[in-house]
Amino acid sequence: MTSTISSTPMAHMCPRYERAIQILGKRWTGLLIDALMQGPRRFCELTALVEGLSDRVLSDRLRELEAEGVVERVVYPQIPVRVEYKLTEKGQALKPVVDAIHIWAETWFMPEDVDATVTSEPNQQN
After folding, report:
1. Cβ neighbours of 33 (radius 10 Å)
2. What are the helix (H) ranges across the chain?
3. Which of 3, 13, 62, 69 has the lowest CB atom count within 10 Å?
């Protein structure tokens, strides 16, 4: 029996989906969005919540998310100046996605699996 190979080109990935994955799939981004789901946070709070994340990478990720309209940087003109980061409407719209990932992770990963992965993972920043 011979098989035939279709001459039709493969379907292309939806460009909107691809763009979303490019933004959300970067290391640390999901953890930052999850942390901001609880409400506005200061830079040092985010550093404390997302263990292993360097200040440089945190700054880069927040800038990228701000440029995409997912995060808003709010500056309070007081002495000393206070800066907070919060999710925009676009960022808040990710709540069902974040919740679904939490449910998926609770279903498919056992605590011992997570502990082993986290402790054996090299300290990569990007």
Report:
1. 22
2. 15-24, 29-36, 43-49, 55-67, 89-92, 95-108, 111-120
3. 3
